[in-house]
Structure formats: structure tokens, C-alpha cells
Design goal:
This protein is an all-alpha fold. It has 6 helices and no strands.
Length: about 140
Amino acid sequence: MNVNFRYLAIVASLVFFALGFAWMLAPNLFPSRWGVEFSYPVGLIGRRGAALYIGIGVMFFSARNAEPSSARSALVKGFIVACLTLACLGVFELLTGHARSGILAAVAIEVAFALMFAGVARIEGVRPETGPLKFIVATQAAGC
């Protein structure tokens, strides 16, 4: 399967739209799967985060046809950083007992997205010494 930026941007936008609307309309869905007790403050944060998810979905959908550029590279790098940070936080919350194993599904998706976007960046011309691969190596060295 030939994975390219356009394909990943469309998939990412659909995932972010789904996450945004799920958090907005059913803010207890994910916390319950992660073993996190739902409360009004959790719902408030989830609904506010939903706006960010939908906005990121719009950015990826709008950029789906972008040619390689510094702007597209910035979008890819930022997404890789966000995904790996979320994955590290998910594992941390699991290990500290604040979340149950249901969070591992989110961690797996986050790592998969980070790796796919890093692969696209590498294939489509982002130099490893200045691109997301440098961040991945640094993150692995830090133990995340």
C-alpha cells in the first residue's frame, strides 16, 4: 500500500472530526473506556478539546493537496510531536494506575499515526536531521 501525505491527511481529518464530535456529544465515552471516572470538569475539558480536534481536522483536510513545503512539514512535525506526547502520557497514566488498559487502543493509534507521518515525511523529502525522525530518536532516547 502506497501511503502518501494526501491519504494520511484525509484519514487524520476524518479521525479528528470523529473524535471532536464524540467528545462534544458524548464526553463520557472515552473516559469510561479508559477507566477514568466521569465528572462535569472532565466533560468540560473534553468538550473544549473537541473544538481543537475539529480545528485540526479542518487543517488536515484543507492541507490534503499541499505539495511538500515548510508549512506542510511544520504540520507533519507538529502532528508527530502531539501523537508521541499523547502516547507517552497514555502509557504514563496506565502505569500510574490513573487509567486502565482501554487507553492502549488510543496509544496504538497515536503511535501508528506518528510512524506513518514520519514515513511519509522521510519518503517525501524531509531530511532526518531536521525533521520528525530526529524527534522520534530523541523521544526514544528519553525513554518515552
